[in-house]
Amino acid sequence: MEKGLLLRDFKPRSELVVERQSVKKPKFTVIDAHTHYGPLTNGDDFAERYDTKAEIERLQSLGIAKVVQHDLVWGEALERVLAKIEPYQDVIVTYGSLDVSKFEDPSFDSYVYKTLRDSTNMGIKGLKMWKNISLGMKDSSGKHIPIDDPRLSPIWQGAAEFGLPILIHVADPIAFFRPIDQYNERYENLQRFPEWSFHEQGFFTFEELMEQQENLIAQNPKTTFIVAHGGSYSENLGKVSQWLRRYPNMFVDMAARLAEFGRQPYTARKFFIEHQDRILFGTDFGPGDDQHYLYFEFLETWNEYFDYSEAEVPGQGRWKIYGIGLEDEVLEKVYFKNAQRVMSL
Ligand SMILES: [Zn+2]
Prior knowledge:
Elements: E1 30-35, H1 39-42, H2 46-49, H3 52-61, E2 64-69, H4 75-85, E3 92-94, H5 108-122, E4 127-129, H6 131-134, H7 153-161, E5 166-168, H8 187-192, H9 206-219, E6 225-227, H10 228-231, H11 237-246, E7 250-253, H12 258-262, H13 265-274, E8 279-280, H14 292-300, H15 328-342
Parallel strand pairs: 1-2, 2-3, 4-5, 5-6, 6-7, 7-8
Helix pairs in contact: 4-5, 5-7
This protein binds zinc ion.
């Protein structure tokens, strides 16, 4: 018998025997509304990382008809992304962004307008705003920038004017804001990536970020916000539900939060049914990723106690997930109809 086993060596294999319906392909066509095919996650040599035509064929074999790729690109960098996906811009749909660090320039307003106009002419379908704003940038007085800072408002107004939805990533899992100790449910996750911790480093607290996020959405009713990663707070779908009821301009995607949705199947099922017009399928995947079937399994089946990832010790936490058996009309909306409508695809 092994005594004093270390947590990192503990890899229990479940002995539970239950039926498992396999879902190799989704029941309907799928638009993956949250993916990465540009430099942000693939590096500056992203163009060498994949062959566009082969990648699209691979995605189609997995049941993914289109992907929406988000990157912090504008100008020449946007041109490079568009050149890479040419002539498949209707299959790999691209968002753009802008240089938010210019927000204190007196001419920020006109910079935003010009960038949005140029990028729209180049074919972007939305704007990506990332956590580097709320969890990174500082203004000239050395203070972090709340996402509802009035100095950023040209962005939200401009997006509304150009009809561009904004995919916004404001915070990370709430556990990343807690001490990294024996009580932290993402302890192993944070051991692996200590730089993902936002505890005690002068950052906004999670609660402050959620207040700022709500203000932002409330103050810009004409702007469509797709709040990434389950509305930033998939650990508390009751809260996300309140926001969705209150703000018709808010949408959410489910990217990289399969573990969260799947560990609360009763609550998640109610959430998906109540907000079936406001949830977009998304994964956060990129070139070569192929675990979409786990998302399909969660949405379509009543399967019990399965892994949300193929990793030996699943990265986000030591728990399993359960399917929520969504009905066809809800599935169709989440899989593609909502994305089509929100992004006018
Ligand atoms: Zn992402």
